[in-house]
Amino acid sequence: MNDLQVMRKRCIQNMLRLYKNANAGHIGAGLSCIDILVYLYFFRMQKTDRFILSKGHAALAWYVVLAESGKINPDLLDTFYQEGTLLPAHPPVGGTIDGITFGTGSLGHGLSLACGTALSCRYTDKPFDVYCLLSDGDCNAGSTWEAALFAAHHKLQNLYVIIDRNRLQGFGNTEEILTLEPLKKKWESFGFQVAVAENGHNFNSLHAAFGAFDNQSTKPACIIAQTVKGHGVSFMENKMEWHYLPMNEEQYKQALREITES
Questions:
Q1: H helices within the chain, ranges in order?
Q2: Structural domain containing residue 168
Q3: Is the pLDDT at 94 greater than 90, yes or no?
Q4: All residues at 6 or more sequence positions from 200 whose CB lies less than 8 Å from its CB, including other chains
Q5: In the chain, how long is the greatest CA-to-CA distance?
Q6: Distance (Å, rounded) from C-alpha 100 to C-alpha 106?
Q7: Contact indicator for 261, 235 with CB cutoff of 8 Å
Q8: How far apart are CA 239 and CA 146, in angstroms?
Q9: What's the CA gap between 5 and 103, in Å, rounded?
Q10: How many domains are contained in the chain?
Q11: Bond before 182 cis per omega within 30 degrees
Q12: If you compute the radius of gyration of the chain from its CA atoms, what whole number of angstroms results?
């Protein structure tokens, strides 16, 4: 997993630079899921597999990982959130970027798209798995649970849902806004195999959680990854305001230093 650590650090450094250059927010959301993306793209997923980012506000984390994987020209990253860019603050629609099939960001839509994609596998001669990354805020939406019912009913065993469980959303703590716990039991009751990655920033923890699934099961799978919003930057960690705030120069230098020295 040492190569993943190097990749992770490089992705975060690049991500921080681009957030600063664009004077853009959603930094905390990107930092809470970047480790999951690195693990999926550089260890878990096969070339034919599909990925859908339901928490579209973390698009920049996805862009830097796609650039590292060769699907985006690295030079294109410098246009992030600029006039006329192909890399807006949320994933673009229309297949303009290799590997990005759907525009997302209005929470509650991603799992439905993932279910349709996973079901389509039955009508092709090329099997593939579908990975869908949800925020815990996605779990407030009724459409997420409708999709979960659909996935279990159709036995979408090629579907993997990963929940970025950082416990913060746009207006505060998830349990104060709309209680989600017991989240594991809820997903199990909807017909999923469920495993918990106790540290969603640790590649071994993520790997162990995926390893808990029974390959013979016909159930779809769900990983609840326990994460920290703003992970790795001391003044951002567990702070709801970093769902929105851009960094000033001093904050950027401190954030970059902490990530570089970690």
A1: 2-22, 27-39, 59-68, 110-120, 142-153, 174-177, 183-189, 203-211, 249-261
A2: 2-261
A3: no
A4: 32, 35, 36, 164, 165, 206, 225, 226, 227
A5: 53
A6: 16
A7: no
A8: 31
A9: 29
A10: 1
A11: yes
A12: 17
Distant-in-sequence, close-in-space partners of 182: CB < 8 Å, separation ≥ 6: none
Grouping H, G, I as helix, E, B as strand and the rest as coil, residue 233 is coil
Alpha carbon 195 to its chain centroid, in Å, reads 17
For residue 49, what are its two tokens? Answer: 């597999």
- Is the CB of residue 166 less than 8 Å from the CB of residue 228? yes
For position 160, which CATH number holds? 3.40.50.970
In angstroms, the CA 75 to CA 70 distance is: 11
40, two tokens: 């999926």
pLDDT tens figures, 61-87: 999 999 999 999 999 999 999 999 999
What amino acid occupies position 67? A
Are 136 and 225 in contact by the 8 Å Cβ rule? The answer is no
Which residues are CB-neighbours of 249 under 8 A, at least 6 positions away? 20
Please state the pTM of the whole predicted model. Answer: 0.97
